[in-house]
Design goal:
heterodimer, A: seven-stranded mixed sheet, four-stranded antiparallel sheet, B: five-stranded mixed sheet, 9 strands
């Protein structure tokens, strides 16, 4: 158990819908990262927040957005869902802002299925 | 961020030592070499990180030559539970994201 929690574990929805994935980082961790893992794209970095502020963006679509709240939990919002958005979405957390000395701890993931 | 190249897959038997080599020719001065392990449908897990020479922890060793253009993850006496995908990454202090390649699928057989 990494200490990072993600809800829900599974999510099944239809194309065009909007969903929210939630992540609670380990106690004391200020950084939250979101990753998407699909069969054809592998593990892709989406976005990084540190203490409520966006720090880096990766291959995140405009239909996707995220935020980190004052209590440090984070939400990833996916809208206008397409079949290709079906994937495992992982949240990770680390203590600091830079990752060189701060390993990332990954949550169990949310499996999103878009029908 | 430096691109890494590693074998797509490797086979081994229980009790053997496994060495997975990763190439990172364009590694930056500030980059650290980091390895993660991932089991199916689970999030990646940090294994080890190093800058140069040799690093050892309770699960693995990491060998990095002086030119740092490659590195080798060594897993001593593997067991069936070590069957997983192993990712090699170059992680720089100025960047805040992990760029995963295709990884190496290690299959350990009895």
């Amino acid at each position: 158990d990494s200490g990072v929690t993600q809800t829900p574990k599974h999510l099944i929805t239809a194309t065009g819908q909007r969903v929210t994935l939630r992540c609670s980082p380990r106690s004391g961790d200020l950084s939250v990262y979101w990753y998407q893992q699909s069969l054809d794209q592998g593990l892709q970095f989406l976005i990084h927040y540190y203490n409520g502020e966006e720090r880096a963006k990766g291959n995140i679509l405009e239909r996707f957005s995220a935020q980190q709240f004052p209590d440090l939990h984070s939400e990833l919002n996916l809208s206008s869902l397409e079949l290709g958005d079906s994937a495992l979405y992982f949240c990770a957390s680390s203590v600091g802002e830079e990752q060189t000395y701060n390993e990332q701890f990954f949550g169990p993931g949310t499996r999103l299925t878009v029908l | 961020l430096a691109k890494t190249t590693q074998p797509i897959s490797m086979d081994s038997y229980e009790g053997q030592e496994v060495n997975i080599t990763c190439s990172h020719n364009n590694i930056a001065t500030n980059d650290y070499i980091t390895w993660y392990q991932q089991f199916p449908s689970q999030g990646p897990r940090f294994i080890i990180q190093g800058y140069k020479t040799k690093v050892t922890n309770e699960v693995a060793s990491l060998f990095i030559p002086a030119d740092r253009k490659s590195s080798t993850l060594s897993l001593p006496r593997v067991s069936l539970s070590d069957t997983a995908v192993y990712y090699c990454l170059c992680v720089g202090g100025a960047t805040n994201k992990l760029i995963f390649g295709t990884g190496t699928l290690l299959a350990v057989q009895p």
